[in-house]
Write a structure and sequence with these properties.
The complex is a heterodimer of chains A (471) and B (163). Chain A has 5 helices and 36 strands. Chain A has 471 residues and is mostly beta strands. In chain A, the strands form 9 sheets. In chain A, strands 1, 2, 30, 31, 32 and 33 form a 6-stranded mixed sheet that branches. In chain A, strands 3-4-36-35-34 form a 5-stranded antiparallel sheet, with no helix packed on it. The longest helix of chain A is centred in the N-terminal third of the chain and has 20 residues. Chain B contains 7 helices and no strands. In chain B, 69% of the residues lie in helices and 0% in strands. The chains are: A mainly beta (471), B mainly alpha (163). Chains A and B meet through helix 1 and helix 2 of A and helix 1, helix 2, helix 3, helix 4 and helix 5 of B.
Chain lengths: 471, 163
């Protein structure tokens, strides 16, 4: 190849003529709402998935919570977020500090951009790759006190076949505090017509769910199987349940004991699959509702959303026990919170653990228990209408992460960070400074107690940082 | 003139000048036309809402390419830092020598793509590539040398001795 070949080939790459008009269309929207439709769909999916994951986890509902009032503490000390260090360490390095004697912060520099953390499991990882991108080895650590403790990485090979495609690969995993962290690259985008990934099962240390998929966009379909981590044996979880009537599957949620599943298809809607009696039935048929969305709550009960209101723009929340048949409505006509609306108020969907957030028209905030219908108001706190905020529950639904953003920052720009502890009845909020020295990229729960923020250097994207906070 | 009209005019001018360059750099990194268009959109929205003041059009173009490279590398990180990408089936370039060349370019490890493209296609000097990608000049030279070796890129006369 010579440079003329390079030029000649590259000159043939041009954006579609529609792109310019599409971007112009975005100029009419407020900045936080702008997104490519394709990507926007992905964001909604991510949010819904996040809810689904947290709803699936069993949640202990304390009766005291229903009447509880959350007391608001705004910390006086402001966190000075550490800026870039400028060199990439060989292994993760951590420093630790305490802010206002209440918030423990662990600042970790990660070896390179092939490292990160397992959502909700409490482990860090680093991938070692060959020049061609293939995975050579995988390392896990736990952040304990002021130490990073290396964990033993184990591997399991698998090779199941589904719908004419054989999926052969290796899952890298470790066990830490009774939970499995697992990683598998899938096709990493090399194959456009199939893919696969692995997810851990809460409470299980011997198996993971291997999700096989084929097609893309409208043609996308998936199928779940169980992978035994010791033997590599594959178990077909849906065999004989009549799941075919819900095909093609686009999403599957499980109870922790895998005795039942919620099957969802963009084409056929929501189905309840009972593995014990081997039946699959449409949720609309079982509940006499037009189910818009569904999640597992505690003890196998389902939380259902249906549209309501004259224009169908509000939602009702229901609980339904598969055994007794009658759905019970816990909230009615909840308007959806639109942060960009002139007078934003309503119900926040992007919230898990069997709970929701309701922001009243005067800005006061309440935590809704979607299972019991109970509410808890946050005392002495109102949500500023100028601020973009995120609320995410931990897996068990006992704590809620709160973050607000600086819209002028390059990355997320998390200007304040807090936790609503629903069991202790307190909401602690920490203001942050120097957050824009790094480009913050993600925010989530690291484990049951700690919040994780990832960031990278603005000058060098290979500098990766993981900051953990325990309130 | 309304603020919205000003934004639209600024966008039209910038897109006409740099839209294709931004898209091509994104394609080099990502290999998928839909992803490259997403990045192109994000880059121009950043230009309109977050960009600093520019000394001239070339300054603006260097800024746009820098943001493009950063966003692409960010996306690749989300795919577990995969080092190479394949040309997406939706790419309109038909089978033939040019497509084969593109496939070789896209198979380069991510590290070398930016320097190679910005230097040999966009025509930026080593110092300019270093500024755009926030690398040292010696790192750029090293990546150009190694990238050339991987591509088996033969230099035309105009490039001889440039690095």
């Amino acid at each position: 190849m010579n440079t003329r070949d390079y030029h000649s080939a590259m000159d043939l790459l041009n954006p579609t003529p529609e792109l310019e008009g599409r971007i112009k269309g975005q100029l009419n929207l407020p900045p936080r709402r702008q997104a490519h439709p394709r990507r926007l769909a992905g964001k909604v999916l991510v949010a819904v998935t996040a809810i689904a994951c947290t709803f699936m986890a069993a949640m202990a509902v304390s009766p005291q919570l229903r009447a509880a009032v959350l007391t608001f503490f705004h910390l006086e000390e402001v966190e000075q977020v550490p800026g870039p260090v400028g060199e990439v360490p060989e292994e993760p390095e951590m420093t630790q500090t305490t802010i206002d004697d209440l918030v423990e912060a662990q600042y970790i520099r990660l070896p390179n951009a092939g490292s990160g953390y397992s959502y909700g499991i409490g482990t860090l990882f680093q991938a070692e790759r060959a020049d061609d991108g293939s995975l050579l080895d995988f390392h896990y650590w736990a952040a304990e006190g002021d130490q990073l403790v290396p964990l033993e990485t184990r591997t399991t090979e698998f090779s199941p076949t589904w719908d004419g495609v054989t999926y052969t690969d290796t899952v890298y995993w470790c066990e830490y505090e009774g939970a499995i962290s697992c990683h598998c690259d899938g096709t990493s985008g090399y194959a456009s017509d199939y893919n696969y990934n692995v997810t851990s099962i809460p409470g299980s240390t011997d198996s993971v769910i291997l999700r096989l998929s084929q097609g893309s966009q409208m043609d996308y379909r998936q199928y779940p199987v169980l992978l035994d981590l010791e033997t590599g044996e594959i178990t077909d979880l849906l065999s004989g349940t009549g799941w075919e009537k819900s095909a093609p599957l686009t999403d599957v949620q499980w109870t922790n004991d895998l005795s039942a599943a919620l099957l969802y298809s963009d084409h056929t809607g929501w189905f309840y699959c009972d593995r014990a009696v081997k039946t699959t039935t449409a949720l609309d048929e079982l509940t006499d509702l037009e189910v818009f969305s569904a999640w597992f709550g505690q003890d196998g009960a389902l939380i259902l959303l249906t549209r309501s209101g004259p224009d169908g723009d509000c939602y009702d929340v229901w609980t339904w026990q598969p055994e007794d048949g009658q759905p019970k409505r816990t909230f009615s006509h909840l308007p959806v919170y639109q942060s960009r609306a002139e007078n934003p108020y309503g119900f926040q969907f992007f919230f898990g653990g069997g709970r929701g957030i309701y922001v009243a028209e005067d800005g006061t905030v309440s935590v809704l228990d979607l299972v019991t219908g109970g509410t808890s108001i946050v005392e002495d706190f109102t949500l500023s209408r100028q601020k973009n905020v995120t609320l995410i529950a931990n897996a068990s639904g006992t704590k809620v992460l709160f973050a607000s953003y600086d819209s002028q920052a390059d990355g997320l720009g998390i200007s304040s960070l807090g936790v609503m502890d629903l069991e202790r009845g307190v909401f602690t909020l920490l203001d942050r400074e120097n957050y824009d020295a790094l480009q913050e990229g993600s925010l989530s729960w690291f484990d049951e107690d700690r919040i994780a923020i990832t960031a990278h250097g603005k000058e060098d994207y290979n500098e990766t940082y993981l900051y953990l906070y325990r309130f | 003139m309304k603020k919205q009209d000003l934004l639209t005019r600024r966008f039209e001018a910038a897109y006409a000048a740099c839209g294709t360059s931004v898209y091509r750099l994104a394609m080099v990194y990502l290999g998928c036309s839909a992803d490259a268009e997403d990045v192109t959109q994000e880059v121009f929205l950043k230009l309109l809402y977050k960009a600093p003041a520019f000394a001239d059009e070339d300054h603006q173009k260097r800024w746009l390419l820098r943001v493009t490279a950063n966003l692409c590398r960010d996306q690749l990180k989300n795919f577990w830092r995969r080092q190479t990408v394949a040309l997406d089936e939706s790419c309109p370039v038909p089978e033939g020598p040019d497509r084969a060349v593109l496939e070789i370019i896209l198979a380069l490890p991510e590290t070398y793509k930016g320097p190679i493209h910005l230097h040999y296609y966009e025509g930026y000097s080593v110092a300019e590539v270093a500024e755009i990608l926030k690398l040292s000049q010696s790192a750029v030279k090293m990546r150009l040398k190694r990238g050339r070796e991987l591509l088996k890129l033969e230099l035309d006369t105009e490039w001889e001795g440039s690095v």
